Amino acid sequence: MVVKHIPLRHDIDGTSFDSVLVQEDSAPPGLPTVLVLHGMEGRSDVQLQFAERLTDWGYQSIAVDLFGTEATRGGMEATTAAMTTFVGDRDALARRLDTVYTTLTGVPQVDPSRVAAIGFCFGGLCVLDLARAGHALTGVAAFHGLLTAPPRAGARPVTARIAVFHGWDDPYAPPEDVVALGRELSGRGIDWQLHAYGNTMHAFMAPWAADPQRGIQYSEAAARRAWTSLRHFLEECFGAEVQATDR
User: Fold this and answer.
1) To the nearest whole percent, how much of the chain has pLDDT over 70?
2) Which DSSP string do the residues of 115-130 spell out, in sequence order?
3) What gap in Å lies between CA 217 and CA 211, rounded to an integer?
4) What would the pLDDT profile of 227-247 be if each residue is shown by its tens digit?
5) Residue 224: enclosing H or E segment and its boundaries?
6) What's the pTM value of the predicted model, to 2 decimals?
7) Is the Cβ–Cβ distance between 152 and 129 less than 8 Å?
8) Which end of the chain is more exposed for a tag (fewer CB within 10 A), N or C?
9) What does R_g of the chain's alpha carbons equal in angstroms?
10) How do residues 90-116 score in pLDDT, each as one tens digit?
11) 15: which strand partners?
């Protein structure tokens, strides 16, 4: 199987963004699409690898650029600053997410009625906020994401299924945040599920994560379990319409 990367460059308020559509070379039109949202590192090669993995399962995916090419080129200092700004201003984050979502689900290769989203760390917060805002997603999955709710709840009903994959020892999402999220989602009548992994820290899906003093550590076991559960979750969201092509 040959996987191709198709640039989806676009501008928002004078800022350039570098999202990438990832699909099998012989992919038929109209495949279900999975948006892949990055963490504080910005649009990255690891994100593209995650997107490529989804092609093995019969989907096409988009590695979403949330910060813009200038921030990404500025390295971790610039992308961390961008993330910190958005975490501190959830209204600004909602506007960015709305614009990016509308732009990417409007490209010719995407059927907007068959779109899911997954996100890691900051991207986990973003996919939860996309669902909270009532965007027409079939489902969202957050991996070691920030869990706190925005100050204002979305006005539209939430139709997306939600899956949360969480390391129990994640210092950036303590148990009280997990409980609060469950109460929030149940209170809004959302179809949600939580997978919590014991003895597991933040960034457990990221192969480069190795800073346990800061609560950041890759876990092969948790990552493997989370990928397996995600596969079942997406099959539930989209039905039996895709054919997996494991390499």
Assistant:
1) 96
2) EEEEEETHHHHHHHHH
3) 6
4) 999 999 999 999 855 555 444
5) helix 220-238
6) 0.95
7) no
8) C
9) 17
10) 999 999 999 999 999 999 999 999 999
11) 12
